[in-house]
Every structure is written in C-alpha cells, then in structure tokens.
Amino acid sequence: MTSSQASSTGTASDASTTGTGTGKETGTATETGTASGTASGTDTKTKDHSTKTTSISIDPAAGAGGISMITPASTTTTYYKIGHNVTFVWNYTSLSVTPSAIDVVASCSLNSATYTLTSNMSVKETGSLVWDTGKYQANPTIPLLTATYTLFVVDSEKSLDDTPEAGYLSSNVGFPFGMYIGSKPTPLNEFLCVTCSSAMSEFQRTGLTFAAGMALITVLSFTWFAGTFGLFSL
C-alpha cells in the first residue's frame, strides 16, 4: 500500500468514513396526575301551583235539581213482572252541582221496605239502570211483593230525607211503578165488574132506563084507569 492511498476506518473527521450511524431516542413521556374534586349541590326548581276555586252562584229561587223519567213514562204507572229485568232511564233537571255518585233505590209502602237497586253509580247526562229482579228474588233480603213501588235517585253523599237545596240533586220526588207475581193485576181505573150495573154499556143502561120508565108509566096509567072507573071498588 502506498502512502498516497488513504484508506482508513475511523472517526467522522476522516476524509473517507465508512460506518454505520445508529441513533435511537427512547423515552417515555408520562404525565401522571389525579384530578380529584367533588361537585355538590342541589338544583331545585320550584313550580308554583295555583289552586283555582270555582265559585258557583245558585239562585235560591231556582229550586232543587231532580230527574225526568224517560223509561218508564211518568204519565202512567207501569207494571213489571217479578223475575224479569226492569229498565229505568232518566235525565237530570235543574242541576247546578253534579253529584260525584248516585244511589238508586225503590221503596214499598206495603211492607215499609227500601230496596237498593245500585249504589255509587257514576253520573252521566242520561242515567240508565237494568234491575235483575229474578236474581234479587232468588236470594232476597226482603222479598218483592205484588205492590206499587216508588223509584228514587239519590246523591250518594245524602239520604232520602235530606232537605232539598237549590241546584243540588233532590230525592224528594219519586216515580211510581208496579211489581207483580203471577198474573198482571188490573189497575183500579181499568177494573170491570161484570155483575155491577156500572159494567153495562151506555146502550144497555139507556135501554134499561127506558124499560123501567115504561113499566112505571104502565103501572100509573093502570092505577088511574082503575080508580076512575071504580075497578078497585068492585
């Protein structure tokens, strides 16, 4: 090797450098900490509640409320056979204060009994009730009789004998209906006595009156004739 050749392995300051430069930067950046805190509080939202009080002005002269019967009609007394269903339908009248619930009862003066048909019934614009008298009569507390009854619709918070108040439901007015066992009874105003003179027709009564009048005239005429000609003196 001649002196003119420069072949060496050495540091980076040499003119010709052969080597491997390896650089490694190793490190760990660790940020460690504890964020600790307590947030305590109460988020209270207060909503104002306003109570509305409705005031109803009721004219004392308006009278108490009541019911108007639809079925059966209030113009006549309807008779129902015991053992069958009985339907009642009614409307309310002159109500300023609607009851929260009602009771429907029937009273019978013959045995001084009151029968509760239903209790705590909801109030609707048109009230209706079907009374199963057969179910009741099968196990009655007080048996139903052949008699006339009176239907009452009562405020559940009141009784039958409470004093009526203007605008409130009153039970002072009842509606009659009949109940019977066996054959339907004949109302008194329809009763016909076949052996009574009132059972005859107008034509029959006129004929009988005419016949009686003619008989009387005949007797009087004969008496006058006999007296005139002295027949009674013979």
Automatic annotation (TrEMBL):
<keyword id="KW-0812">Transmembrane</keyword>
<feature type="compositionally biased region" description="Low complexity">
    <location>
        <begin position="1"/>
        <end position="43"/>
    </location>
</feature>
<keyword id="KW-1133">Transmembrane helix</keyword>
<feature type="region of interest" description="Disordered">
    <location>
        <begin position="1"/>
        <end position="57"/>
    </location>
</feature>
<keyword id="KW-0472">Membrane</keyword>
<dbReference type="Pfam" id="PF23585">
    <property type="entry name" value="DUF7137"/>
</dbReference>
<feature type="domain" description="DUF7137">
    <location>
        <begin position="62"/>
        <end position="195"/>
    </location>
</feature>
<protein>
    <recommendedName>
        <fullName>DUF7137 domain-containing protein</fullName>
    </recommendedName>
</protein>
<feature type="transmembrane region" description="Helical">
    <location>
        <begin position="208"/>
        <end position="232"/>
    </location>
</feature>
<dbReference type="InterPro" id="IPR055561">
    <property type="entry name" value="DUF7137"/>
</dbReference>
